[in-house]
Structures are given as structure tokens and as C-alpha cells.
Amino acid sequence: MVMLVCLVMLVLQVGGWVVLNRMHDAQYAHFRCMKLEGLRLHRLSVPFVHLIHVSRVTHRLPVLMFKLQRSVQKLYGMQNSGEKTILFLAEMLCYGYMMVAGGALISLIMGGDATGLVLGLGLGVLVPVALTKDLHGKVQQRDQQILLELPELLSKMMLLVGAGETVQRALLHCVERKGADTVHPLYRELRQTVGEWESGYSFQQAFEHLSKRCGIQEVTVFTTTVLLNMRRGGSDFVMALRELSQTLWGKRTSISRTRGEQASSKLVFPMALILLTVIVLVGAPALMMMNM
């Protein structure tokens, strides 16, 4: 009975993917060309993109879609964020689909043992959840990197503005010093901001876009402080940045302390494993001598 169920599931899964891929390949072919860092199964995404559109998941689960899209926007940019979110959902479904199919195949190979099927069904649920958790973890790490670097950027800007530079020139100088090859998320967003105002956007519009792209309260406070005080210039502007810098350095200290605590907690299991190994190595000869 289990072999029959596994065989039917495997045939339906493989056959359904082939049929949907042939029917909707032209309609959703552009999803194959979209490349997002960390996604490896985008070439298999066409049937799952169709299932997402047919099931209207984006309308049935608006809270989930909002959280996913916000995370995707932070990591991969605002452009085509809706399609990128659908592609990420298709990747999740593809992994779950492959886990279930692999479990059914293992059960067939094992002669009808239900263990493989149960394992495949379990992984088919857990792997998409793990992908979502990993996405949010990357977003949290990105936000922390921005918060750690923002106080240093403020310190540099204070020195340059205090020396007579304009706000625009000070910011441009900070970005240029980091170089075009830096992968730091804050300077990547700042390079895009510089590109926007050089291509025709006003400084205010470019800074507002920076705040939206980063999606962090501290960056919003930074952009608001700069826009409100840049016209005053001189000592007033530097004073406003100094007050904000003190707050951000406190945030940085808090994040560094949290990271240190997380790192120490991650070392508990390896240290316990090493202790257990040492106990076995020391205790085994003593036990052998007692038995003799």
C-alpha cells in the first residue's frame, strides 16, 4: 500500500511539473532569468510561480507577503520587489516539492518502508520554514551592519563639515574613500543615493529614498536630522550631528554586547563536546585498568 501511494505521488509530482512547465513556460519565462543571491532553483520556478498566481497567495496571506516583501526589498532592492518576492516563494515551494518527491523515492527504494515518505513530508515543511528564517536572519544582520557603521560615518561627516565642506561634498568624500568595490550595505545604499542626485534627483529626494530603502529607524532619524539642519550649516549642523552620534554610539555598544553574548552562547555546545571527549579519553584507561 505504501509503495503504491509513493509511486502515485512520484508520478503525479514529476508529471505535474513537466505539464505545468510546458504550458506556462512562455508566460513566466522571465522568472528564469531573474537571479537573486542565495537562490539556486530559479530555473525550475515556472510551475510554482503559476501555482502562486492561481492560488492567490499574495491576497490570502497579506501579512506574510508584506513581511517577505519587506525583507526582499532590504536585501535585493526596491526594483521589481513584487516579482522577486514571488520568486522567493517559488524557491520555497520548489525545495518542499523536491523533499517530498525525494522521500517518496526513498520509500520506493526501501521496498515500501514509510520512513522515507514521512521524512520527506517533514522536510517538505521544515525546509521552506528554514529558508524564511534564514532570509529574516540575513536582514537582521544587514541592519546591524548598518547600525554599526553609521556612527563612524557621522563622525567623518562632522569633521569634514566642521572643516568647511558642504554636506553633499562631505558625504561624497566618505563614499569615495570606501571605494566602489565595498560590499557594506550602508555604503552600497549611499552609492545609490549619490547616483540618484547626480542623475537629476534633488538631495532631499535622494535622502528620502535612502531612508525608505534602509528601512531602519536610526537611518530615518539621520536623514531627517541632515535635511532639517543642513541649511543652517556650520556649528549648528555639527552640534545636531554630534547629539545624534552620541545616541548611535550607544546603540553600537549595545549591538556589540549582544553579538558577544550570542557568540559565547554558540560556543557552549562545542565546549561541552570537548569536555565530554576529554572525560572519555581520561576515564577510559582508568576503567580498563579497573577491569583488569
Automatic annotation (TrEMBL):
Q: Which domain of life is it from?
A: Bacteria
Which residues belong to any copy of the Type II secretion system protein GspF domain? Answer: 154-284
Where is this protein primarily located?
membrane
Coiled-coil regions, chain positions: none
One GO location term (cellular component): plasma membrane
Against InterPro entries, the record matches this protein to: T2SS_GspF_dom (IPR018076)
Query: Transmembrane segments in this chain: where?
Result: 86-108, 114-132, 267-288
How is this protein positioned relative to the membrane?
Multi-pass membrane protein
**Where is this gene product found?**
Cell membrane
Listed A to Z, the keywords are: Cell membrane, Membrane, Transmembrane, Transmembrane helix
Q: What is this protein called?
A: Type II secretion protein F
Q: Which organism is it from?
A: Paenibacillus kribbensis
Organism classification, top ranks?
Bacteria, Bacillati, Bacillota, Bacilli, Bacillales
